[in-house]
Design goal:
Radius of gyration: 23 Å
CATH topology of the largest domain: FAD/NAD(P)-binding domain
CATH architecture of the largest domain: 3-Layer(bba) Sandwich
Distance between the termini: 52 Å
Bound molecules: flavin-adenine dinucleotide
Number of helices: 19
Largest sheet: 10 strands, mixed
Structural class: alpha/beta
Length: 568
């Protein structure tokens, strides 16, 4: 460990504790970064990089976490939002992969973030008499057995055709002979990654978002640091590192090449999800719909229906993949095979697209490229840099652990990961606050359902919102035009959750951009006015933020207006 470094954060005036991320904290961490030699610099604040930063800092290492944009701006806010064991990998007999993913799923639900990760049922509709029930049931039984130790989710249930109708009134009874229900866990990816970053900051990690790594420092063949650009000021900084972890997802191959090696490439594959109105489907369980070439899943997410996903190549820009009309129609058509009351585009509230970081090839010296599991790869090179790619959201903690093990091993550091027992921000006092819904509902004048979601978003940190409302009573009420959210949440987003733009607040801290049928265009000016004083925005800046948000929403929602086309 670097003796010169300390993980004692520099608490600024606007930080209640070190988990609070905001412009003052960012500036402080940036200034510290230019004078330190970090044990580990992590590039990328998606779930993998955030997990790696937390893993490293809780081993007592000095850590800097960087991202070109916002926390979870890449794939980690565009997933299917499910911690899952991967039932379909059982068909490929990949038992180890499934067992690991189930362990992680259960850890999230029971220990690490029970406020964010919740057991959720999924219904597998049976369409063939006799053989399908024992076949699918046996697979789900193995799945259940693997989850017995964790004990975090209920076991499978079987339904007759009639029983199915009771649980899924929307089901087309003429298509099904019965169903099998199994369980995984739903979560909020952007807010979970945020919780990871805040937990890492609380442990002393320095966190600087909107600071892309634009170049690398070298001593001979060894990478000894990074050059970053502060996109807020245009200034460049050089930062020294004993070890660098490249967790840049779909950009990881480009980063490795810039650092001086070229041993793998990423093939981005696009996946689209649509958020449907709560009343679009009558069901008390999620539903699996087998499509010709994939599986479409409808899950209950914050009371809405999240339906996905597609799988098509994407050759456009990596930063802002968008859904096309054909993607949306493909999702709805395949779901409609199983529904008596068909869903249509008029049921769609919002839509988003993400890119899977699929590892295309790993070239070079096969021995030097250690694939620690079939699911993800830890790739050394150039000297001083370790890349972590592939995998899935559910297994981020293992990926992070493997990456940190590999990154610090050459430094002679032998500490082990402790993240399996470390609750994230929002989870520490969860048992004390999980039943406070009725008090919060009467305090804030919110519906019980909305308070439940408030608790899911913030966990025990709901106490921070109460404190904000105590200090300024005008914040302790639902936001007009977005009444599922408390006004204080918008202020909290910029004061404690590191949001630096209107897009950050409306897309990732809240999800109003997909929850409101107008893409949150109407409420955006009010939100901008509420957060502007905390970010020092002028009138001109507010207009720029509104324009940037409007442009993003136009692009993301174009698919909902476009004419229907054939899915490729
Ligand atoms: C449609 C879809 C559905 C999915 N559903 C699920 C699911 O339900 N469950 C599940 O377990 N998994 C799911 N996955 C997989 C999962 O979402 C991804 O594996 C995971 O989010 C990848 O995270 P990451 O941190 O590796 O990458 P990312 O989240 O993309 O993070 C990479 C980060 O690197 C940053 N970066 C890039 N270049 C630079 C630079 N030069 N300097 C600084 N920072 C840089 C980016 O800004 C970005 O924030 C899904 C994936 C997709 C696409």
């Amino acid at each position: 460990m670097n003796e010169l470094n300390s993980n004692v954060p520099c608490l600024s005036a606007d930080q209640v504790d070190a988990t609070w991320l905001n412009p003052a904290q960012r500036q402080c961490d940036l200034e510290t970064a230019r004078t330190q030699v970090f044990d580990v610099v992590v590039i990328g604040a998606g779930v993998t990089g955030a997990g790696a930063a937390l893993d490293a800092v809780t081993r007592g290492l000095s850590v800097l976490l960087l991202d070109a944009g916002d926390i979870a701006v890449g794939t980690s806010s565009r997933s299917g939002k499910t911690f899952h064991g991967g039932l379909r990998y059982l068909e490929q007999l990949n038992f180890k992969l499934v067992a690991h993913a189930i362990q992680e799923r259960d850890l999230m639900v029971k220990t690490l973030c029970p406020h964010i990760a919740r057991p959720e049922s999924f219904l597998y509709p049976l369409t063939h008499a006799w053989w399908e029930r024992p076949y699918v049931g046996a697979g789900v039984l193995v799945y259940d057995i693997m989850g017995l130790k964790g004990g975090a989710v209920p076991l499978q249930r079987h339904f007759s055709r009639k029983g199915l109708k009771e649980h899924v009134p929307s089901i087309d009874q003429s298509r099904v002979v019965g169903g099998i229900q199994y369980f995984d866990a739903l979560m909020d990816d952007a807010r979970h990654t945020l919780a990871l970053v805040r937990t890492a900051a609380g442990q002393g990690a320095r966190v600087v978002m909107r600071a892309p790594v634009v170049d690398f420092l070298h001593e001979g063949a060894r990478v000894t640091g990074v050059q970053i650009k502060d996109t807020q000021t245009g200034e460049h900084y050089t930062i020294a590192a004993r070890s660098i972890i490249n967790a840049a997802g779909i950009w990881a191959d480009e980063l490795q090449q810039r650092a001086g090696a070229n041993t793998f490439s990423i093939q981005p594959a696009k996946g689209v999800h649509a958020l449907l109105k709560a009343e679009a489907i009558q069901s008390d369980t999620g539903i699996l719909a087998r499509a010709t070439d994939s599986v479409i899943i409808a899950r209950r997410w914050y009371g809405y229906w999240l339906v996905g996903t597609t799988d098509t190549p994407w050759a456009g820009g990596k930063s802002n993949p968008v859904a096309e009309a054909a993607d949306v129609d493909y999702l709805l058509d395949n779901l409609n095979h199983y529904l008596a009351r068909k869903v249509s585009r008029s049921d769609v509230l919002g839509v988003f697209a993400g890119l899977r970081p699929l590892l295309k090839s790993v070239g070079g010296d096969a021995d030097a490229t250690s694939a620690l599991s079939r699911d993800h790869a830890v790739i050394p090179g150039p000297v001083g840099m370790t890349t972590i790619v592939g995998g899935k959201y559910t297994t981020y903690r293992r990926m992070a652990r493997d990456a940190v093990d590999a990154a610090v091993q050459p430094l002679g550091i032998k500490t082990a990961s402790v993240t399996a027992t470390l609750p994230l921000v929002g989870a520490q006092q969860w048992n004390n606050v999980r039943n406070t819904g009725p008090q919060l509902a009467s305090r804030f004048g919110m519906l019980p359902m909305d308070v439940e979601r408030l608790l899911q978003r913030h966990g025990d940190r709901v106490s921070d919102l109460v404190a904000l409302a105590d200090a300024d009573a005008s914040l302790g009420v639902p936001m007009p035009g977005a009444i599922h959210y408390l006004k204080a949440e918008f202020v909290y987003a910029v004061r404690a959750e590191g949001a630096l733009s209107l897009v950050d607040v409306l897309v990732r801290r809240t999800h109003l951009s997909i929850e409101l049928p107008d893409g949150a265009r109407a409420v955006a000016p009010q939100v901008a006015a509420l957060i502007a004083p905390h970010l020092g925005w002028s009138h001109d800046r507010i207009q720029k933020e509104l324009m940037a948000f409007g442009k993003l929403i136009d692009a993301e929602r174009a698919a909902l207006q476009a004419a229907t086309t054939q899915h490729p």
